[in-house]
Amino acid sequence: MKVISKILIVSLIFLSLPTHGVLDIKITQGIEQSLPIAIVPFGWSKYNADISIDVTKIITDNLKRSGRFDVMDELDLPQQPTEFGAINFNDWRKLGMENILIGDLTLTANGDYDVSFRLIDIYRGKQIAGFRIPSKPNLLRRVAHQISDIVFKELTGTAGAFDTRVAYVTVKKNKDKKTHTLQIADSDGYNQQVLLRSSEPLLSPAWSPNGEEIAYVSFEGKNSAIYVQNILTGKRKKVAAFEGINSAPNWSPEGSRLAMTLSKDGNTEIYIISLHSKKLTRMTNHNAIDTEPTWSPDGRKLAFTSDRSGGPQIYEMDIRGGQPKRISFEGNYNSRPSYSPDGNFITFVHAVNGSYHIGLLDLNNGRIKTLTDSKLDESPSFSPNGGMIIYATIGERGAQLAAVSVDGRIHQRLGLQQGDVREPAWGPFLK
Amino acid sequence: MSIRLLLILGLISFLFGCSTDKVKEDVVVAVEDLSSQQDKINSVDSDAQAYGTEDSTTSRFSQLDDPESPLSVRVIYFEYDSSQIRSEYRSAIEAHSAYLSENIDTTVTLEGHADELGSREYNLALGERRAKSIKQQMLLLGASSSQIRLVSYGEERPAVDGHDELSWQKNRRVEILY
Amino acid sequence: MQANFFLTSRSIILSVFLHVIVGIILIYSFEFSPKPTLSPNPIINIVKAKTIDKNQIDLELKRLRKKDNEKIEKELIRQKKIKKKEEDAKKKKLAKEKLKKLKKKKEQEVKKRKKEEADIKKRKEEKIKLEQENKKRIEKEAQKIAAEKKKEEKIKLEQENKKRIEEEAQKIAAEKKKEEKILQEQLDAELEAEQQERDLTVIQKYQILIRREVNSNFNKVNLPDSLECVILIRMLEGGKVVEASIEKSSGNVLFDRRATNAVYSASPLPVPQEIRLFKKMRTIRFTFDP
Fold first, then answer.
1. B148 touches chain A (CB under 8 A)
2. Which of B11, B41, B68 is the last residue of a domain?
3. Which range marks the domain in which residue B33 is found?
4. Which of A330, A333, C20, C283 has the most crowded Cβ, counting Cβ within 10 A?
5. ipTM of the complex in this document
6. A with B: how many residue pairs have Cβ under 8 Å apart?
């Protein structure tokens, strides 16, 4: 028996040992880490030495700021190739650098630029993506953002949102007078442009889906009124100036309607106005405060703030009408909802014990995650790729803009200017 | 009667020295009224009704500008996220309501405000609700709707720019503006 | 035989020698035979005969010639006769010699024959002698053989006994060996099993190390859930990954790329230094299933 058992053991062991010497290993974990990348300074032809925009630096800052990348320090680059043939793959492999970005800028005969770049997979020794982008000199910044978006997409799997703009309100105090401006800037804070300047308060900027217009609330008429302004032309029209409150404009996904808050009928209620016909449709009918409507990306629902249950909470209702349904149940103050581009989440102001944070509600399971630690946060809205949430916060430097990644790991401060900055709205993808 | 006049004049000058612009304006008006009143006083013996009218004009002036008078209360403060009127402001509202009901040509603007906590648009509505609750009280107490205008600035026009409870307290308010 | 040959050759040499001598004599004598000499021709007095008739001259020439020829002919005949005589004499001589030779030869042959007979006799006698001796010897040998055979048989018997004993001993030894072999095999198997267990333990240990290493290099940030891909790698001694191929794609380019990068980043993988063990795990199949 002993012999038999030994034979059995031996045979079992033989069976469990790898056949033909192939060992099977299952990888079930992995890490969540920044992706290493080396950005080699783009080459220059000798003709464009006086260019003032450093495309390489814009891309580097973008990727760094996203918190998703670990960008190699320029001093540590083992070499600085500007074309594929000059890459010494062994040098990079030794450093464990998986991806590098190389590029080149040349000035063409008519004074425009040709920007070419290649994203390289070092381990495979192949190009992942490569393009040549012709560009006018004044659009080089945008090209740098576009390149950042491509690199971001290829390496993280999600679209980048660098080639986008944000709108915001600034307030500057001069003795007793306050000056309010509505401005837009690139997603990295550069290229600031003033759209409106007023001595009266401005709030709630809202981008139209095509990025050409902004709706906002202005008190220039001594009462709140809603305006829609064309960004390029600066032309604007007054859309709602009823008695009482006219506020919280929010565009429908197809861009022809605005949801808004009006109190003309005695109480703040949600209405929808058709921008062409000016037809007004009332959505809510309750003596509670109903405000801050936001359209779901599929255009089927409205989420809004209502205190009909005692304190402000988030509600959802069908666009065709019907009874609103409460969807926030944690905490005694939840307001200012905003849908994610994929419609799976709502970001909102979530107060816990008198601290006002940015919250994230998962519509699939009702779970709420608190994304910020700061206590005076408001006005959250998603980036068009759904990865970041921009919001207003009050800190040591006063009122500033900040952004947090949807998983809560990456925090950014947007240093736009001195004075108070508030009411951010992240514009759609630029065409 | 002339002693009374002197007293009134003294009061006027006293007020003139330490009042706001608005009250100043009122003072100017009052002076005008006084002169007209003076005329009326001169002819008081001949027009008893006019006196009565004069009387009301005089009393209006004094009620508004009297720092002791509840009408001088022009700001009503609220609790956090509340539009409930605190009992301490009851008499003031009563006084304003009475004043309005007695002066049907007079209009007042109730400016609603809120502290910076929470979202702006909600605070806009909250400010309006606060103003509205005062309006409702006033209507109950004799004022008419057409006299009262409502405006809400939400958190956009803080009285105090600080980021602490003291500042927030000062911003949760309705301003009564004539 | 040899004697005959000698005899024969001697006679040949003799005859040749004789012939040569005769020949020389003949040739010599021939040379000394008087040469045909032309008798001196009559001198024609040319001065006398004035009118020379060609025909007469011819006739004269002819006559003279004829005379000469007759002379020559005579001489030739004479010589011929002499020759003949000589030849006859030679012939006779030769015949004589031949006879002599024959006689000799005969005598020699008789001698030879006698000798041969004597020889044969001798040989015969010797032969008998030999036969007798042989017989004796054979007998002796037979005896010897018999004796030997006996001896052999004895030895054989002994040997067989010995062999049998040996065989039995061998058999026992073989059986013993078999048993030992079985035991040895068992032992080997046990050792092998233990070795395999040890190897397995070692390999399992490295499996864990490698898994940990690749896990910590697999960057799954932003990757979609519930994807799976299989990467097959080969290593050089020391754990350096030299080949990573996608055996089964996850369907997502980024996922595949991250998995491949994970393996390369983790390279060189922790592997046993012992080559024997390393060979058992130089090819690894990674299943990425975060």
1. no
2. B68
3. 2-68
4. A333
5. 0.85
6. 81
